[in-house]
Amino acid sequence: MNTSSSDRLRRVLDFVRGIEDRAARRRVPFKWGTAFFHDEFPRIHDLNFLRVDGAPDDATPQGLAAEADRLLGGASLSHRKIVVQDESLGERLTPGFEELGWEIVRLLYMEARRESERALSPGVAAEVDIETFLEARELSIRADRELVQEEDLVVQLRDSYKVWARACVARPFAAFVDGEPVSTCELYSDGATAQIESVLTLEEHRNRGLGVAVVLLALHEARKAGDDMVFLIAEDDDWPKELYKKLGFDPIGITHEFKIPDVSKAEQPTRQ
Fold first, then answer.
1. What is the pLDDT of residue 160?
2. Three-class SS of residue 209?
3. Residue 118 maps to a domain
4. Backbone torsion region of residue 209, taken as left when φ is above 0, otherwise alpha when ψ lies between -120 and 50, otherwise beta
5. Burial class (CB in 10 A: 0-12, 13-18, 19+), 131
6. DSSP structure string for 56-76
């Protein structure tokens, strides 16, 4: 049965919210939604953030920023992150958050609805165990010159995968060069809906089709397992979305994230 893009977006957002709820160690309600915390991984923004529920008419950038300061700052977290899943509300809030000096990320949800223009490459990628996946993840993290200077952040970025793996059925995939895992992605599933996430390729091995290989294998395995909806998320202003279109993924909706990666380094205007 055909369903509209709004219905399909609602389904994937329900899937995402379910994982967020199960991944959290603590949940704290606030005026416009819920704050999520995982005290074991305080530097992982995706585990410590505010989520606005629905599209409250009285939500304002200043009010949300104050709640983020109260809740995330109150937990001694150095970042600020607010997720707004209603597209119209996100667009309304964007100018105000820009005035406050926050970063705005528009996330494009894309569903696999067509045949890929690229063929699955047998033997290039494979499903791997968690240890192999974490090895590849750490290699990618340590390739970032800024991240590698902060060992605790490297460890948290690497090991946070285990949180997601406990929150749903998670399957890691990797492509290899000379026996070394150099490109990876994750597949999350609830038995009907599946998400392909964290597509990473070491810089020196990019533009060789390895990222395509892991994505197409994850998609193939999701279909084989019975998932009738497979989606991924791309930044709306970044180039990977064009690649994903070639792999058969079509846009179904936009959500917004408003962020300050480190409040100690941010220049924040005085709030009225």
1. 92
2. coil
3. no
4. left
5. exposed
6. -TT--HHHHHHHHIIIIITTT
Terminus-to-terminus CA distance in the chain, angstroms? 50
Residue that is written with structure tokens 């290039």 in the block: 124
Q: State the sign of the Cα–Cα–Cα–Cα dihedral 208, 233, 39, 60.
A: positive
Residue 213 pLDDT > 80, yes or no? Answer: yes
Please identify which residue in the block is written with the tokens 């599209």: 55
Cβ proximity of 53 and 29 under 8 Å: no
CA distance 121 to 127: 14
Range of the domain at 72: 5-108+255-260
Query: Tell me, what's the pLDDT at 267?
Result: 53
Chain-centre distance for alpha carbon 221: 20
pLDDT for residue 148: 66
153 and 226 together in one domain: yes
Residue 58, pLDDT score:
98
> DSSP state, 205?
G
Residue 269 is given by DSSP the state: P
| Secondary structure E strands in the chain | 26-30, 33-37, 49-52, 80-84, 103-112, 125-127, 169-177, 180-189, 193-201, 229-235, 249-260
Q: How many CB atoms lie within 10 A of CB 2?
A: 5
Co-location of 65 and 39 in the same domain? yes
